[in-house]
Write a structure and sequence with these properties.
The protein has two helices and three strands. It is an alpha+beta fold. Strands 1-2-3 form a three-stranded antiparallel β-sheet. Helix 1 packs parallel to helix 2. The protein is globular.
Length: 75
């Protein structure tokens, strides 16, 4: 898979979780990429968590922009 295709896949995942009502909770960066933890409360008030592993630099920039938008209340 090309880097661009990988980026598109990672960007889709970020957007999918945000569309489902998840918010970015934590980001853990290391030499193999970044782990992005998403959280949301379900209808019972229980916490749902999903983690994705982001490998491409472009997708890392993308979720950073989405995090800034989240913090400013724009997303």
């Amino acid at each position: 898979m090309s880097d661009y295709q990988q980026y598109l896949k990672e960007r889709e995942l970020v957007d999918l979780y945000i569309q489902k009502g998840f918010q970015i909770k934590t980001i853990t960066e290391n030499l193999s990429g970044a782990y992005v933890l998403f959280e949301k409360k379900d209808s019972k008030g229980e916490l749902e968590r999903e983690t994705i592993h982001v490998l491409t630099p472009a997708a890392r920039k993308y979720f950073s922009v989405r995090l800034i938008q989240q913090q400013k209340g724009l997303s």
